[in-house]
Structure to design on (1292 residues):
């Protein structure tokens, strides 16, 4: 089959699957803790796949904007590791999965007291945000925005309405942050770490942009469109290992079992995932790809219902598990 | 470089690394709860790598016999899934990693009460042993032994001294088993499930045999020496996902981060791991391989100190992470 | 008012209250884990109050037999302390209340590992049973039976049907026992400790007999009918403190707040409690009394619904709280 | 013996005991999280006993000022119950003891989510402070100060240095408060509840003043010097039950077992306790008394080492347990 025939076939398949899995969304519902998330259309489902050539395959509402939410945890972790080195960061946050909900405090108390289990749960991510270089939230965010810009070639935009809502309602995250301050794991003031964390969560993207992040992870930090290694390979591999073991909240184990790709989800319904190059000889993506998904109706763990369902089918039909 | 030159180079490297990492063993110590484990030589370190061609690379004390212990959990999980189908098994045991120690009861109480988190912790493995087909421990074990024989072409031998010692001292496992019986997750009597579980743990192997199991997992269930698909691909992929997220006790996250290969360890000091075919173009094992390691001095999590240390070097130098 | 007029008034009140609180029983249900408990009549409610003179006030089904269940924990704790001294026993079981259910394992793992929180939860009570003097279950039980006989002047009778049922279904208690064996807190074999514990739970009594135990506790170990100090005062005071802080399962705090008397309940619906002498000048029991209650419909914590409800009224109307 | 001879004898005994138990203080150390507590003299030990007649017995450094800290929890609980009624308050905070440390978050997550276990742990006390009547921290505090003034006949003074230090370092309490806000148990803003709570903790007293509070509790809310019932009897009894089951942090069970009196301690080294009237015929305090103790060297649970030690001797020698 020629490349273009392949493409046509895959796009047709994707369109059918998106139409089918969109129906699954009714088993979830949009996050409701702030108005902006509550207003999302629960029937939306979109996907964008980008290959190293820059070639894109899209289906459904792939270009509807949404906020990064927890997907930002991957980028801020990479950013902190780039600046401080891996071992500095891992002295402050562990890399062990946990069966708990993303916002649980229990484990903070039981573990080496206060050290967050991993950078993909809120406690770990807030710790990581506090580690970003800079003396003020603005400096820390500027560092992070510069990294986003390197990836997407445009300055990230914070959805101010979302940020303000998050800021007002973030009692659980404040509880976690004060706990971390008490145990000495926070590198700046509570309100500063929270501002950085909640602003990075409020960056507005669409599936193409997170697919691009995924693609660079697939290529171990190499940006194929810029032709430049933008992150150290070791940092990216570590991030992918964390995505696989902890990226889908307390359904990470199930996602690894049924899909088998490193992924990170957010409560806004986004999922960023990727296929490494030449996993198996017959892969439809021999050079790897990045995948961005948006489906705002989420399940009780916080993952897009239709998005996970669609990814199970993709992994099965196209045989792209890393296992 | 010709194939044989490659081989020579790799064997030389392996010999040097084994000599070096053997020194790490002094940071751990042999499991001491039963005499047979206590008697092991903590300075031992051996490795065997098998490629699909049957070609073997070995170094150190690769042929010293040891008992499978928790490595058997992978085989019994595959066996139960082969017989009952994946969904039957996953109704009785979950697939989520947990940050707890392998023998923790806490999570059994907090989780959907009593359902084990995953088949790689003791509670889950005992549940899986109870699911093996057969009305008696003997029948269940015969089913399991037949699977071992299919892999290694010889009947497995149970180390009776180890089994009897385990049987006498296994209070924690009895506690877990009675708890599982109480919550309804055990498919047979407590003493029957324990007999099966402790006998499968007491099967004697050397690194070549576990490397062979690893190789078959690397090839998604295909036995290259028999030329036969002996396990369904989906079952093997699920087993590998579980190994990656939960296979190294509560250091699974760190192992995924620093080594990045599906692996399962046992308290006797064994580690079974594998490299899938053609992960990256420049892999020294383009067709995949199975790896067996033995180093009886273990750390506080229960993993071979020298073995993990050696695998970090292999993963780094030969660049074989799945991420 | 003359003594006999007082008595008449109190008996009339008691009869009315029993009739009223009997109706509360419909909010609970009989324990159902074994047939003998399941068969109890949930509408039953009986009470017996004994004063130091031997004078008895009774109402309702006060003479229906039931098994001691957890009420036995108080007697075995006193027995173990009489034999070994308080400090020996408290080295093996703590005296802290816990907000957990009586059969929880969680706390065993989190606490100084394995040391039971207190002798009123199952883990602590099984530990205490293992401490009774004697090399066999029979010897340990004989020691305990002798103490019962000293109190009630007749040999205790074990309900064999209940014992056998408990023995067959006691998976949770076996789990606790094996855990305790593993952590070294059990002074004999698991099956021996369980036999002692489950037989003491299966002793058949009626409300008069437990009221008599309560009376002796009220008098700090003095048996008024025998005219003899049968337990050391310090041991009895300790037992009463434990009853107050831990005696009503995880509703102990509420019972202390709303009733304010040392008490111990059992899942068969029994409650043993007591009023110390001259708590307040105007007490209807200036010399103290023991109170036995039976009401087999229990709540989710394991306490007799009608019994607790009746005791709240008694405490309120007769003003007998120790606070 | 005449009354005055009795008094002399008791004062002599007290002086000897204080001299003896002062030596125990070296096993503890002063709270060190803020300068004002760190500066306390760890060898200090003082006691004041007040009888309903107003007669005082004192020994040691009974008049050294210290801050109320957690002892204030009893007064604010009584205040909230006086204003709202018991059931309103107990809808927002439970009355169950817990084996956890006073500042633990774990139980908040495991329990009916977020409802504090009892008003004697920080989470419960902060909730209670938020319930005090008034729309501002000042109004809430004025309500509480008025109650103090009714007891001690002088306006309470807040140690501003202590309050400011607490306010700056109170990360753990802020974590608890934000958690409570998230779960809906806080009746005002986080910063408001904290201001009230930390100011009540910073009220300066000496042992005489807390002995006076204890005396009023001993008399079920009756103020003998004013000749007035200042709190409802039911509220005071409930407060005493809570002090007995939860008043000495996670050593409450041990204190009930070895001392047997309702008591509340604070990290500044204060203990407020009491003897109810005519507990036993031969009591040295037939009309009851209040007891205030100050000994700033505390143990790992947060209780005055010398204070607890002294109270064990008093309870033993004077036979004043409520059991």
């Amino acid at each position: 089959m020629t490349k273009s025939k392949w493409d046509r076939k895959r796009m047709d398949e994707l369109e059918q699957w998106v139409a089918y899995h969109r129906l699954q969304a009714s088993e979830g519902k949009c996050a409701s803790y702030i108005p902006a998330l509550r207003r999302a259309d629960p029937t939306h489902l979109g996907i964008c796949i980008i290959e190293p050539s820059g070639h894109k395959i899209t289906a459904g509402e792939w270009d509807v904007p949404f906020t990064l939410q927890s997907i930002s945890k991957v980028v801020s972790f990479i950013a902190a590791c780039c600046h401080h080195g891996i071992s500095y960061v891992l002295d402050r946050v562990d890399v062990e999965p946990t069966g708990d909900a993303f916002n649980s405090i229990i484990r903070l108390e039981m573990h080496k007291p206060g050290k967050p289990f991993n950078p993909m749960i809120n406690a770990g991510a807030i710790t990581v945000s506090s580690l970003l270089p800079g003396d003020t939230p603005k400096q820390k965010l500027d560092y992070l925005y510069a990294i986003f810009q390197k990836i997407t070639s445009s300055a990230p935009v914070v959805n101010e309405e979302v940020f303000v809502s998050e800021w007002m309602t973030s009692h659980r995250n404040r509880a976690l942050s004060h706990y971390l301050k008490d145990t000495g794991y926070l590198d700046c003031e509570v309100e500063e770490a929270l501002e950085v964390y909640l602003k990075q969560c409020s960056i507005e993207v669409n599936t193409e942009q997170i697919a691009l992040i995924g693609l660079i992870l697939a290529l171990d930090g190499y940006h194929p469109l810029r032709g430049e290694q933008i992150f150290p390979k070791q940092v990216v591999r570590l991030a992918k290992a964390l995505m696989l073991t902890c990226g889908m909240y307390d359904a990470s184990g199930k996602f690894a079992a049924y899909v088998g790709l490193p992924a990170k989800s957010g409560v806004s319904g986004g999922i960023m995932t990727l296929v490494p190059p030449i996993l198996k000889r017959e892969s439809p993506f021999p050079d790897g790809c990045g995948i961005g998904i948006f489906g705002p109706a989420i399940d009780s763990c916080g993952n897009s219902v239709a998005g996970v369902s669609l990814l199970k089918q993709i992994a099965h039909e196209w045989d792209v598990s890393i296992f």
Summary: The mean pLDDT of chain B is 92. The longest helix of chain B spans residues 3-21. The interface with chain A takes residues 94-99, 107, 111, 117-118, 237-238, 240-242, 244-246, 250-254, 256-257, 260, 262, 276-281, 321-323 of chain B (CB under 8 Å).
